[in-house]
Amino acid sequence: MKQSVITGIRLASMQQGGAPYGLVEDAAIALAGGRVAWAGASSALPATWNGVERFDFKGRLATPALIDCHTHLVFGGNRAREFEMRLEGASYEEVARAGGGIVSTVTATRKTGEDALVEGALKRLDVLIAEGVATVEIKSGYGLTVEDELKMLRAARRLGQMRPVRVKTSYLAAHAVPAEYRDRPDAYIDEVVLPGLDAAHAEGLADAVDGFCEGIAFSPAQIARVFDKARQLGLPVKLHAEQLSNLGGAKLAASYGALSADHLEYLDAEGVAAMAAAGTVAVLLPGAFYTLRETQHPPLAALREKGVPIAIATDCNPGSSPLASLLLTINMACTLFRMTPEEALAGATREAARALGLAAETGTIEAGKRAEIAIWDVEHPAELAYRIGFNPLHHRIMGDIE
Length: 402
Ligand code: DI6
Ligand code: FE
Prior knowledge:
With 402 residues, the protein is an alpha/beta fold. It has helices at 80-87, 92-97, 101-111, 114-129, 146-162, 185-202, 220-233, 249-255, 269-278, 286-291, 300-306, 326-335, 341-347, 350-355, 382-386, and strands at 3-12, 23-32, 35-41, 54-64, 66-68, 133-139, 166-174, 208-213, 238-241, 260-263, 281-284, 310-312, 372-376, 393-398. The strands form two sheets. It has an eight-stranded parallel β-sheet with strand order 5-6-7-8-9-10-11-12. The chain has a six-stranded mixed β-sheet with strand order 3-2-1-4-13-14, with no helix packed on it.
């Protein structure tokens, strides 16, 4: 079994319950077989590690590798024209209702072959990886036919084989009602969403099931039908909820034991309580809040008070969040949502792992977890949050040191 020891680091393990950020000065991490075997103060490193190959990072900071737990990385085309329309005064919902928005990306995605989808997404994935990301969630939801949804998920799986990164897929056919089903959302669910889920599951393409619960998308009752099917198949669920209005989506998701409810600007106290009781992670998406110039903030104080775990993610997509930087997302979570730098970094590591059902595998640096570590050219972890447009990644470790 391959063994190595990382020395000369300041460690921000992001383990809960100890020092802020789980900070240990002058630390060491022992790796064996792609996992962390030991982590702590270098003075306490067990003598059994003497003689094992050492890598000295000369005082740099080690954190868990980053996790982007909500992206729409695979899509065709772009929506720069819609950006212009919104600058001319149209709202996101008006653009959507006029056949732009999500549906225009659907048209472009249907026209794009699987290889070209992979090629386009790879550029965005590489930008994320260059910032220390080791796990990326990728949703379908721009195909909206069985074949096009499967095409998107196959592209997402291929991305995970092309780069040293863990890809978790979410089946999001319940993202928008396509033009051919206009005013017949239930027929769309019966004829496309549910059979497509069977097909995606049969091909091993769906790690989770997502939906968009909103006036311009699907009602809680419609989402419930999709979640019932997910439950039958044994797949975890998550939901885009309370982004533009409050339909009670988070409460519905919590009632299905959802991994996460995402966006949540309009979440109310009842939704917060339901999420707390179910252990559903709140995934906040400051890139969409910023791009749409939202003014309604997610209820951070209530989430904190009830102990709801809070993750953050890029929501990288061509419309509401054309953002491929998780570091900038961390900054925005602090500046726009008033999260602390420690909360924001936890949101892109430990809590993001929890939002993907990966808390046992990754998200903190501790014995037993995968060795997924980012080494940064900074002294203190708050520096990762406060800088804008600056990438201090020195090295990303994914399993073994290369
Ligand atoms: N909410 C979002 O932020 C993305 N999907 C969703 O339901 C945006 C999708 C898009 O505008 O293309
Ligand atoms: Fe999204």
